[in-house]
Amino acid sequence: MPPAAPLLLQPLDEPAAAARGIRLLLLRDDLTHSELPGNKWRKLKYNLQAAREQGHDKLLTFGGAYSNHIAAVAAAGRLSGLRTIGIIRGEELAHRPLNATLTRARADGMQLRFVSREAYQRRHESGWVAELQQDFGPAYVLPEGGSNALALPGCAELLTELRTRTSFDYVAVACGTGGTLAGLVTGLLPPETAVGIAALREGELLRAEVQRLLGNESASSNWVLHSGFHHGGYARFSAGLLDFIRQFQARHGVLLDPVYTGKLLWGVLQLLEQDYFRPGSTLVAVHTGGLQGWAGFRQRFGKRSAWWPTEAAR
């Protein structure tokens, strides 16, 4: 695969941070890889290595119809010469015509299988996964969102790279399946703290998943998960969130997405207003990408907003 680009740190001039003497930086991990931006590249890095070492020639994974993970695995398969299979939540007729995410995934060579929402709930059952492998042949299985033990070291490397550029007190990241936050926790050095902003309602379930991924490190006190900034739940949004994303882009020239990074920066600025972060500290928010999802949002919700980012803005 093409190598990742060096990290770009962008200072954010925000009154809530300046008033407290806090240095607020945006880590543009969305720019580190041209086709696998942000945490997707990091989560897949060691999984792809393991797939090769185990002799697999195909990847099998799971996701929704607008999933960043599905898009990333399809692109990774094309770039690395591995076949890819995507088990997609929802009946096939409900996804016709294919949206931009699935169209791109298929163009990248991914074989799509649509399953009912009821069947999709079995994605964690080893017996059902074995049945899928009987249909498709032996495959390296990636969980939904790519969050597993091998995703953690790839995400932890972000902090190693970051320390070559600056010291920091807090690193904040959006959380969907918990793998990125767990990976960051494994890479922290005292007294650094990881701050997760949940993108979905189920904050307690997400917290338990992060602890499961961390294993023996789950009792660590150097991380926290905030679950009050989800704007209605996963892939849900509010008019206020869209307005915030529009204003953020106008102020900083950076487009956020409404599923993850928009909620991250919304939450970070709210926590700054609430004096959550120590005065005089350095806070780094991580832009993990996800901008491919805008095409799907325009397709699904275009009539509900007077503003959607243009292709040029992305």
UniProtKB/TrEMBL annotation:
<dbReference type="InterPro" id="IPR027278">
    <property type="entry name" value="ACCD_DCysDesulf"/>
</dbReference>
<feature type="domain" description="Tryptophan synthase beta chain-like PALP">
    <location>
        <begin position="18"/>
        <end position="289"/>
    </location>
</feature>
<keyword id="KW-0663">Pyridoxal phosphate</keyword>
<dbReference type="Pfam" id="PF00291">
    <property type="entry name" value="PALP"/>
</dbReference>
<protein>
    <submittedName>
        <fullName>1-aminocyclopropane-1-carboxylate deaminase/D-cysteine desulfhydrase</fullName>
    </submittedName>
</protein>
<comment type="similarity">
    <text>Belongs to the ACC deaminase/D-cysteine desulfhydrase family.</text>
</comment>
<dbReference type="InterPro" id="IPR036052">
    <property type="entry name" value="TrpB-like_PALP_sf"/>
</dbReference>
<dbReference type="InterPro" id="IPR001926">
    <property type="entry name" value="TrpB-like_PALP"/>
</dbReference>
